[in-house]
Design brief:
This protein is of the alpha/beta class and 207 residues long. 29% of the residues lie in helices and 15% in strands.
């Protein structure tokens, strides 16, 4: 008598990563452990459809280099640059179709989004197709219950998606502004990322 093998569970984490910081990595690690994922794939966006009015502070090749430095030595974290080689806005549905051709057949895909993305999720390009292709997972960085509607929690979210929750008061905007102001970003980003920002002279202008 043979037992069915459970499909591989793979996490996908898209975003500008401008720059990637320790908050991204901590939430990704939490998601891997809490959701039983075999790996987490970071996908840096070329042009985010949700930020069409603002270009990234660093070029795609720089953000890719920082991501690769950030995940070096972590076997469950990988970087896929597919969106950086595609023209136009980086629509998630196109990325999922691309990845599906290269990932194990039948793999269950968990797509991480920030809690601030949930209210506008219905506006995402071909969202109904996305619902059929991935399980959205919400990353909450504001601490247990902070900012949530009354009677809701990480275990009972109003949107119904699984939640990965950890208090992390850290953002890429803060890091860019600290660099522009000549302040230290040590302990906020991996050392390899900090070195790339310094050697390539990134984020010298305030945002």
């Amino acid at each position: 008598m043979s037992s069915a093998t459970a499909p591989e569970r793979i996490g996908l984490y898209g975003g500008s990563f401008d720059p990637v910081h320790l908050g991204h990595l901590i939430l990704a690690r939490d998601a891997v452990e809490q959701l039983g994922l075999s790996r987490m794939i970071f996908v840096p966006a070329a042009i985010s459809p949700h930020k069409l009015g603002r270009l990234p502070g660093a070029a795609g090749e720089d953000r890719l280099a920082m991501l690769e430095a950030a995940v070096a030595g972590e076997p469950q974290f990988v970087v896929d640059p597919c969106e950086l080689g595609r023209a136009g806005p980086s629509y998630t549905v196109d990325t999922i179709h691309d990845l599906r051709t290269r990932l194990p057949e039948g793999a269950a895909l968990c797509y991480l989004i920030g809690e601030d993305n949930v209210p506008a999720l219905h506006t995402w390009h071909r969202i109904e197709t996305l619902y059929a292709l991935v399980q959205f997972v919400v990353c909450r960085r504001r601490g247990p219950g902070v900012g949530a509607a009354p009677g809701t929690s990480a275990r009972n979210p109003p949107h119904g998606f699984p939640v990965v929750e950890r208090w992390l008061d850290l953002s890429s905007t803060e890091i860019r502004n600290r660099v522009a102001a000549g302040r230290s970003i040590r302990y906020l980003v991996p050392d390899g990322v900090r070195e790339i920002i310094a050697t390539r002279k990134l984020y010298r202008q305030p945002v």
